[in-house]
Amino acid sequence: MTRKAIVLLSGGLDSTTTLAIAKSKGFQVFTLSFEYGQRHRVELDRAREISRRSGAAEHRVLTVDLGALGGSALTAGIPVPTGRSAEEMSAEIPVTYVPARNTIFLSFALAYAEVSGARDLFIGVNAVDYSGYPDCRPEYIAAFEKLANLATKAGVEGGDPIRIHTPLIDLTKAEIIQLGLSLGVDYGLTHSCYAPDEQGLACGVCDSCQLRLKGFREAGATDPVAYQPAG
Amino acid sequence: MTRKAIVLLSGGLDSTTTLAIAKSKGFQVFTLSFEYGQRHRVELDRAREISRRSGAAEHRVLTVDLGALGGSALTAGIPVPTGRSAEEMSAEIPVTYVPARNTIFLSFALAYAEVSGARDLFIGVNAVDYSGYPDCRPEYIAAFEKLANLATKAGVEGGDPIRIHTPLIDLTKAEIIQLGLSLGVDYGLTHSCYAPDEQGLACGVCDSCQLRLKGFREAGATDPVAYQPAG
Predict the structure, then answer these.
(1) Which residue numbers in chain A have pLDDT < 70?
(2) For chain B, which terminus, N or C, has the lower number of CB atoms within 10 Å?
(3) Is residue A231 one of the residues assigned to a domain?
(4) Is residue A53 one of the residues assigned to a domain?
(5) Rounded to whole angstroms, how far apart are CA atoms B136 and A219?
């Protein structure tokens, strides 16, 4: 029987690569995206399209009220930083950090796993480029996996344990891109920018765009997405 | 300086008692309720009123899409069981179990703690009367506390650790009621019923009503809420 997996899919480069990895391992995938008060919706549109093209069994979008709690440049009115070096970015917890976001997202993925009969959860966290995010570290993921097996019917009734897969956690952005390209990922569908324009075009200068462009350079590849004309 | 605490408040007997305990310990309380596709809204109205009367610093209601994931009689179309004994209730995981619910709720409480500067979270879980719920066990709570300290800025930057308080976890329903009465809780404001009528009157026969009524009997007290006339 084909094993089912929940894949957290933002529509970005990392989660799209993670989806391709889950598919390549033979999982029947159920993709889960969140509407969480992001300042732009292009990500969600991309996630839906990426899921559809991947042949996912199901794609769900859950609305969560992260914006109501505030506390991050991604959901509140704090300016998104631009033009910083990778070293500057990793020196501190970025303002784009959303409090407890991965914990919230993984909790919903766990609920989805329980109702769909999946025991495997895939999340594209990365401890290299996003070292400033506490909830991207391997010890955090291990703690969530332990929690998941205590939290659910599966944990009480025995059977297959819940596993949290983080196939990108130790990879550089360039390595992620190389892996994705080898699996046939169309990065032209993915969206990474924190501050796209009205047409959804990436800015090219926010932390996320810079990490992405540096990744493509180091991978010896060309980023297929269109960027805003330099202003 | 007064310490801040997040209190998960459903408007039921247990969470209302938990709120009184947090207040009695001197915390400045921030109450958090969820609109999660419950079949009845009376709980949320009661939670707001209970929070207001407690003098909470703030009350927030977050909408979460648990209903979209299905899987429980509390959010889906599964009939709520009635007329069961306490032994029958605790023999298995009840159909009213919502997958990963406490994990989701605690995750949002953690986010709220992070943005409000609280380090203490109170949740009225109980391992005695709700032994069938995997996410009401002490080992589950311990795992969440560990996760919380790995998930957040507080965990990375040091300082006070996050603590999850479960003051009811080892108490019987009768003991909870006795404790609450000693702290001046007005149980007439609380709502426990899974299947209230249009006026919000409790049914008196669902698992939750039965546990509540048994608790009042054993506490030697009278439940001040009104019940539907026996049908």
Answers:
(1) 37-40, 67-68, 70-98, 129-132, 153-158, 231
(2) N
(3) no
(4) yes
(5) 47
Q: Is B199 on the interface with A (CB under 8 A)?
A: no
Window 31-90 of A, Cβ < 8 Å to B: 60, 62-66, 68-71
* 87-116 in chain A: CB under 8 A from chain B: 93, 97-104, 107-108, 110-112, 114-115
Let me know if residue B152 belongs to a domain: yes
| Closest approach of A102 to chain B, Cα-based (Å) | 8
Q: Is residue B84 over pLDDT 60?
A: no
pLDDT at B219: 97
User: What is this structure's pTM?
Assistant: 0.87
Tell me whether residue B216 is in a domain: no
Size of interface A-B (CB pairs under 8 A): 141
Select the residue from A150, A164, A166 to test the B interface by mutation, using most B Cβ atoms within 10 A.
A150
What CATH number does the domain containing B161 carry? 3.40.50.620
Q: Which helix (H) or strand (E) holds B212?
A: helix B207-219
User: Mind giving me the DSSP string for B21-79?
Assistant: HHHHTTPEEEEEEEE---S-SHHHHHHHHHHHHHT-SEEEEEEB-HHHH--STTTSSPP
Question: Which value does ipTM take for this structure?
Answer: 0.85
What is the rounded average pLDDT of the residues B46-62? Answer: 94
Residue B138: domain span? 4-186
Q: Read off the pLDDT of residues B172-212 as tens digits, 9 standing for 90 and up.
A: 999 999 999 999 999 999 999 988 888 889 999 988 899 99
Q: How many domains does chain A have?
A: 1
